Amino acid sequence: MPAIVLVGAQWGDEGKGKATDLLGSSVDYVVKFNGGNNAGHTVVIEKDGKREKYALHLLPSGILSPNCTPVIGNGVVIDLSVLFEELDGLQARGIDTSKLLVSANAHVIPSYNRTIDKVTERFLGKRRIGTTGRGIGPTYADKMNRVGIRIQDLYDEGILRQKVEAALELKNQILAKVYNTRGSEVDEVVEELLSYAGRLAPMVADTSLELSRALDRGDTVLFEAGQATLLDVDHGTYPYVTSSNAVAAGACTGSGVPPTRIDSVIAILKAYTTRVGEGPFPTELHDDMGEFLRKTGAEFGVTTGRPRRCGWLDTVIGRYATRINGVTDFVITKLDILTGLEKVPVCVAYDVDGVRHDEMPVNQTDFHHAKPIYEELPGWWEDISRCRTFEDLPANAQAYVLRVEELIGARVSAIGVGPGRDEIIERFPLKPAVAG
Ligand code: GDP
Ligand code: IMO
Ligand code: MG
């Protein structure tokens, strides 16, 4: 013990990578349990007096902490070409990646699922989801449909061939007859997958057993979610979601560690809101203020480079995240981006066709109609990037955090005041005390 889950509270890109990196030096394992290379985490590290930026997609952010063992759990979908590209990139920059463990039960993203992701989006036209085009949805669909390919299949060529054949039988027909696109050759797919098997072999493990033993030994394990609460396939703004469970509960199914072993849940909440791709977004700004947040916050996707849609903080979503994830601690990130505003609007409830909603409407149509009800909090002008204690913050910034804390219903334990590793205020310890 302890086991800590770290999740995104909004639509992703809250700064989970930076928060994981912050905890990385004091945890023994960091586990990615959902999603794949649709994620994009930026971590900024000070090295020899210079700022170095790392963009991670598939690897857990804990890989940047020398003493931490990074784990890719069974709930992840793996594009093997991206895995090795990322490992090579880190090794070239002097990062030790030799401890990485990969679950034998994780699914691989075969090349045909990237094709299907892209052609499906084109086919949907105006109804598209705005996916990252990485083959995530089709690979999770295959998993549920029981025609997926797992990491362990790479070590039994006969089984691998059978599975690829079974998957392509239907998919090639759909690609040709519905989408008018060339299908894939079984041999090519099998060969490509087998080409990774040798290099991957030493990393493949029963990661559920490894983590269970680690917790028995008293090691600290951090589970790092990709995506976020409102992109969760069950609890998000379906169908404008990703195809995995990004909420805290996903840490258990996606790693094989049971709920009774989880001690705390940290949610990362950006001081305003962003979203990439399509779907409802009540506090979205289409004016100069939206542009201000995008520019000042550098809100462009790490994975696809798309400009992120921007809007004010929505505490209805924050409260929802608290409830769905069982949040024990919040980290508010990017408070520095709100510096210099006369008033900072915070959404406290919605008006849905004339009716006030204090909680997330259960009906998706209502959420599409939701108009934010704002409370305007007084702003601050001082540069806060050098603040390291809560008391260092200007009075109005403190008041903003305290009001948000009250609205979201869980304590704010840390506050991000800049992208750098040390640009954070640690108000309360994020790691639970070890019992006994
Ligand atoms: P993730 O997907 O949740 O890991 O988040 P991303 O890396 O996609 O996006 C968060 C961005 O905000 C990154 O560029 C971080 O370097 C940056 N960031 C994180 N925390 C802070 C903060 O407190 N202040 C500022 N200015 N930037 C931050
Ligand atoms: P991190 O981990 C923001 C969005 C896509 C699209 C939807 C479905 O960096 O927070 P997918 O390719 O997953 O099928 O796309 O989900 N999306 C993200 N948005 N941050 C992410 O990851 C995302 N991963 C997926 O833009 O709307
Ligand atoms: Mg991101």
UniProtKB/TrEMBL annotation:
Pathway assigned in UniProt: Purine metabolism; AMP biosynthesis via de novo pathway; AMP from IMP: step 1/2
Active site: 13 (proton acceptor), 41 (proton donor), 143
Binding annotation for substrate: 302-308
UniProt: Mg(2+) binding residues: 13, 40
PANTHER family assigned to the protein according to its UniProt record, in alphabetical order: ADENYLOSUCCINATE SYNTHETASE
EC numbers for this chain: 6.3.4.4
Subunit field text: Homodimer.
Cofactor: how bound: Binds 1 Mg(2+) ion per subunit.
Species in which this protein is naturally found: Terrabacter lapilli
Protein name per Swiss-Prot or TrEMBL: Adenylosuccinate synthetase
